[in-house]
What does this fold into?
Amino acid sequence: MKKMQKIIYWMRLIAEILFLCLFIWFLPYLYKSSWQGIAFLVTTILYIGCTLWTLLSKRKIYQEMISYNLIMIFVFLYFALIVLRISFDTRLQMQELYTINIEYCKNNFFILALIMIGLICNTILLSFAKEEGQEKDTKKGSD
It folds into this structure.
């Protein structure tokens, strides 16, 4: 089980790096996507900050929670699917359906922003849950 936790955790780290690369590459679409793109931009910055906080805190709960790491991997896969669909779908590029591309982006950026807000809240709740468990352990040791 420990080996699977480590593999999934490392997959999450790789997914986070690839997410940043795709995010930077896809910035022009964000600016053209109205308020949904800006909301996605803001939540992504918060999400990146939250991810950096989990990495720098070196708490075991973020490495051991398989479901938490899988959700982060699937967020990357969902974003990658959006980017690949917009960038490489020849049907949309050949017919010059630019407005459909932007509408597709708007809807998916909004969905991703909501998912990332949920992940940020989950990360914060996990940090509180772990701290409470540590406090109980220290109280038992002092009794």
Notes: The longest helix spans residues 98-142. Helices lie at 2-25, 27-31, 34-57, 60-64, 66-88, 90-94, 98-142.
